[in-house]
Amino acid sequence: MDLWRYILRRILYTIPTVLGALIIMFIVTRILPGDPVMMILGPAHSSPENIETMRALMGLDHSVPVQFLIYLKQLLNGDLGFSYHTGNPVSHELLTRFPATFELTTFAFFLMVAISLPLGLISGYFRNKTPDHLISVFTVMGVSMPTFWLGLLLIYFFFYKLGIAPPPMGRLSPIFSFPPEVTGLLLVDALIAGDFKAFFGALQQLILPGITLAFFNLAIIVRTLKADMIETLEEDYIRTAKAMGFGIQRVLIRHAFRNALLPTVTMIGAIYGALLGGAVLTEVVFSWPGMGLYAVESIQYLDYAGLQGFIIFYVIIFAMVNLIVDISYRWIDPRVRLD
Question: Taking the model in full, what pTM does it have?
Answer without folding.
Answer: 0.82
